[in-house]
């Protein structure tokens, strides 16, 4: 009697866990099909990464059911996990390829870092709020990512020891582009960064051309949390 109850609970648990896994997988597929592709995300590697990264593991339990809606969600410390479309759009804008080394400013939940880590070789990510940075490191390590490197600090200074980078993604909005980030970009490299005060921000694509020229192109109006400064 006891043994058969144990057996049936095991079977039930098995089906319950595999169906909840499938539910999220289907929700990710719907997000890709209904939101990302219609809004112009074409890069195959980016779409594949958006299909695989488990965003529900990077948000608090009470908002997990909204994890695959195309919107930002609160993650604590007054910060948010970026909207999936914006993560896909910024990732596509740097034209990610295997072999690349990318710097991200604003680790937050770790979602953008995970999407990048699915495609490029190395992701360096900096977060100014220690509690968030440590939590993201724990989550991403638990998810098995071995090509993400973490730092707590002010991303204004970039990460000199590992520069130059093939690309830089900034996920908090400064009023001006931090000059060291441009310095730490490789020749031929690209940076996407939201710039401006909260009511009037634009996502910009900065390119360091082979002839040394820096070009800047406005991509879309956005709303990111402000880029905060530390004294160190
Ligand atoms: N990339 C994150 C988005 C998080 S929101 C994600 O995918 O979830 C932006 C993050 O930038 C916040 O966590 C905020 O604390 C952080 N941030 C703001 N100013 C910063 C700075 N100067 N250096 C590093 N991180 C910063």
Automatic annotation (TrEMBL):
* Residues in the signal sequence: 1-20
A molecular function annotated in GO for this UniProt entry is: protein-L-isoaspartate (D-aspartate) O-methyltransferase activity
Query: Which GO CC annotations does the UniProt entry carry?
Result: cytoplasm
Q: Which domain of life is it from?
A: Bacteria
Keywords from the named record: Cytoplasm, Methyltransferase, S-adenosyl-L-methionine, Signal, Transferase
Catalysed reaction, written as an equation:
[protein]-L-isoaspartate + S-adenosyl-L-methionine = [protein]-L-isoaspartate alpha-methyl ester + S-adenosyl-L-homocysteine
Q: Which Pfam families match?
A: PCMT
> What are the subcellular locations of this protein?
Cytoplasm
Q: What EC number(s) does this enzyme carry?
A: 2.1.1.77
GO biological process, alphabetically ordered:
methylation; protein repair
InterPro entries, per database record? PCMT (IPR000682), SAM-dependent_MTases_sf (IPR029063)
Q: Which residues form the active site?
A: 82
Q: Which PANTHER family match?
A: PROTEIN-L-ISOASPARTATE O-METHYLTRANSFERASE (PTHR11579), PROTEIN-L-ISOASPARTATE(D-ASPARTATE) O-METHYLTRANSFERASE (PTHR11579:SF0)
Which family is annotated? Answer: Belongs to the methyltransferase superfamily. L-isoaspartyl/D-aspartyl protein methyltransferase family.
Role played: Catalyzes the methyl esterification of L-isoaspartyl residues in peptides and proteins that result from spontaneous decomposition of normal L-aspartyl and L-asparaginyl residues. It plays a role in the repair and/or degradation of damaged proteins.
* Full protein name: Protein-L-isoaspartate O-methyltransferase
């Amino acid at each position: 009697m006891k043994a058969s109850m144990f057996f049936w609970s095991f079977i039930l648990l098995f089906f319950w866990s595999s169906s909840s896994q499938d539910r999220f997988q289907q929700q990710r597929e719907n997000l890709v099909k209904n939101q990302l592709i219609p809004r112009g995300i074409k890069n195959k590697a980016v779409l594949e990464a958006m299909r695989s990264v488990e965003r529900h593991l990077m948000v608090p339990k009470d908002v997990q059911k909204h994890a695959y809606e195309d919107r930002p969600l609160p993650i604590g410390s007054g910060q948010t996990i970026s909207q999936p479309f914006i993560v896909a759009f910024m990732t596509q804008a740097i034209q990610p390829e295997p072999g690349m080394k990318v710097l991200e400013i604003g680790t937050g939940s770790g979602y953008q870092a995970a999407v990048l880590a699915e495609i490029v070789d190395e992701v360096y990510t900096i977060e100014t709020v220690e509690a968030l940075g440590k939590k993201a490191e724990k989550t991403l390590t638990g998810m098995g990512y071995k090509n993400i490197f973490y730092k707590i600090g002010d991303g204004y200074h970039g990460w000199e020891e590992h520069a130059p980078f093939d690309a830089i993604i900034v996920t908090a909005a400064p009023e001006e582009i931090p000059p060291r980030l441009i310095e730490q970009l490789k020749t031929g490299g690209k940076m996407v960064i939201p710039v401006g005060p909260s009511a009037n921000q634009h996502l910009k694509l900065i390119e360091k051309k082979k002839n040394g020229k820096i070009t800047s192109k406005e991509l879309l109006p956005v709303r990111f949390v402000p880029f905060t400064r530390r004294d160190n």
